[in-house]
């Protein structure tokens, strides 16, 4: 196997995978992660023509850049022990229409179309967000089975208003993508669209997608959403119908911290 050295990023994969596994959020091979590398930070040669794999849609904002991506079937509990064998390095061609494997794990996550589509949108709209994390927390998947919890606004309003700081961390709420085939381009494209406005997107009946400057940063936001969902399920289990913090109070908190402009009521 060709070796590569991105120690800082490998540490981020390793510690995030460890915590995903410890929390029971990425069962078996569930979930995947990627980090985008700037062209100037990669000393990679140009992709050889023979190594070009055509992308289903062009990713012009990724032209010449590279992505570290977990391998398909890799387990968080193993990445959490030693990341390197489980991460592959892929380079996008200068025309943004092809990609190729460069080093490391050779069998990319089946969600590669989603990771590439989202990195392309992030590079355009939120370039500081270099990391993408996908995982399957039970408390978040369970939300998709509550009648009426089938859109971004309802879930954001009902869940992020159960804890006083949740909306402060996620003022724009969470995005939502209805059920799509795992690994499909549709799932990727709809997620890319939703992630322009949100840092988290719930994949109906599937799991969560989070972005951040690092994987640890994406994990922080996931934790905040998961905590609020946990409060929801605790109340429901106790037979209490959750009464949320009022909209006026939420706006007051957001105003105090200068984040009201990111809130869409
Ligand atoms: P991979 O092991 O191919 O990354 O798939 C896991 C998954 O969660 C797909 O959504
Ligand atoms: Zn998944």
Explain the overall architecture.
This protein is an alpha+beta fold and 265 residues long. The protein has one domain (7-262): Class II aldolase/adducin N-terminal domain (L-fuculose-1-phosphate Aldolase), CATH 3.40.225.10. It is 37% helix and 17% strand. The protein has nine helices and nine strands. It has a nine-stranded mixed sheet with strand order 2-5-4-3-1-6-9-8-7, sandwiched between helices. The longest helix has 23 residues, at 215-237. The protein is globular and about 60 Å long. The termini are far apart. The model has no long low-confidence stretch (mean pLDDT 94). Bound molecules: 1,3-dihydroxyacetonephosphate and zinc ion. 1,3-dihydroxyacetonephosphate binds at residues 29-32, 70, 72-73, 109-111, 182.
């Amino acid at each position: 196997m060709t070796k590569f050295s991105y120690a800082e990023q490998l540490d981020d994969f390793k510690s995030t995978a460890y915590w995903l596994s410890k929390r029971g959020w990425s069962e078996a091979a569930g979930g995947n992660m990627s980090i985008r590398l700037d062209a100037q930070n990669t000393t990679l040669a140009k992709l050889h023509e023979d190594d070009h794999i055509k992308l289903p849609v062009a990713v012009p904002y990724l032209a010449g850049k590279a992505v570290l991506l977990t391998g398909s079937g890799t387990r968080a509990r193993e990445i959490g022990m030693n990341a390197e064998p489980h991460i592959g390095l892929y380079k996008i061609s200068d025309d943004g229409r092809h990609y190729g494997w460069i080093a490391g794990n050779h069998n990319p996550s089946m969600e590669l179309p989603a990771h590439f589509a989202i990195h392309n949108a992030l590079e355009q709209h939120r370039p500081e967000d270099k990391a993408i994390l996908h995982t399957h927390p039970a408390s978040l998947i369970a939300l998709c089975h509550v009648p009426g919890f089938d859109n971004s606004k309802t879930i954001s309003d009902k869940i992020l208003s159960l804890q006083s700081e949740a909306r402060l961390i996620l003022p724009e709420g969470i995005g939502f993508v209805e059920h799509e085939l795992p690994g499909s381009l549709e799932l990727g494209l709809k997620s890319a669209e939703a992630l322009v406005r949100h840092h988290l997107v719930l994949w109906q009946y599937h799991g969560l997608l989070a972005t951040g400057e690092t994987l640890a940063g994406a994990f922080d936001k996931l934790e905040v959403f998961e905590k609020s969902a946990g409060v929801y399920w605790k109340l429901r289990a106790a037979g209490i119908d959750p009464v949320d913090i009022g909209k006026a109070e939420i706006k007051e908190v957001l105003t105090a911290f200068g984040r009201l402009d990111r809130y869409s009521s």
